[in-house]
Amino acid sequence: MLDDGQIESFISDGFVKVEQAFPSEVAAAGRAILWRATGCDPEDRSTWTQPVIRLGDFADEPFARAATAPALMTAFDQLVGQGRWLPRNSLGTFPIRFPVGGAPGDDGWHIDVSFPGDDPSDYLTWRVNLFSKGRALLMLFLFSDIGDDDAPTRIRVGSHLRVPSLLAPFGEAGADLTQFAYAPATADLPEVAATGRAGDVYLCHPFLVHAAQRHRGRTARFLAQPPLLSRGPCVLERPDGAYSPIELAIRRGLGD
């Protein structure tokens, strides 16, 4: 279980790292599947021709085991609330990053949108609202060891606390990512890198501002970044005061 200090860190910083949430041998089995899906040869660097290859959802046994790891089930209840999240037995998307030349083209600071706009097929029009409709958590599943040079996800610490006041004017309809200035509003915050060992998982507030970066290491980086979906939007006025840490962070960001 997450202790009180970890939960408070999640509320104040926007993320918590669950070390060895799933076994390293499960991560290794998952990597083998992903290597095949990339079409690249792990022993032949000449086949590594792109800085990033994006793979979709995978429900093979290693990914189902990682997604349903007992430590994560407990943490979901602690951070989101019992009965407030949707179980999953698959993982995706996988941005597989390689140490090859060229800009990755996807390394801008952003938050993740969570529900469709007028055209569900156009992801650029998807939206996010103050109540985080559709998304309970952003998750980073490390399927390989990731050091400082291995393209770890960059995180702006505490950025999730500045997003609620920016989203509040848009109400339930929310906004797409072109409509509010979350990146400039968080540019002064300290950054950390989501490094760790295969089997570690970062559980992040859905409003956390984060970014990819270029791979400067030697081996391919394997990471899944699926959402944990919610059963309903956050409730920011609960008569019983039974707020989840996600809701408490949003309320803190609004000054409550």
Predict the CATH topology: Jelly Rolls
- Examine the secondary-structure arrangement and name the CATH architecture: Sandwich
In terms of DSSP E residues, the strand content is: 5-15%
Give the CATH level 1 class: Mainly Beta
Helix percentage: 10-25%
Rg of Cα set: 18 Å
Q: What does this 3D model show about the protein?
A:
This protein is of the alpha+beta class and 256 residues long. The protein has one domain (4-253): Sandwich (Jelly Rolls), CATH 2.60.120. It contains 7 helices and 10 strands. It has helices spanning 4-13, 24-38, 61-67, 70-80, 163-167, 182-185, 245-253; strands at residues 15-18, 52-55, 94-97, 135-142, 154-156, 191-193, 201-204, 210-211, 223-224, 227-229. The strands form 3 sheets. Strands 1, 4, 7, 9 and 10 form a 5-stranded antiparallel sheet that branches. The longest helix is centred in the first third of the chain and has 15 residues, at 24-38. It is globular. Keywords: Dioxygenase, Oxidoreductase. It comes from Nocardia tenerifensis. InterPro entries: Phytyl_CoA_dOase-like (IPR008775).
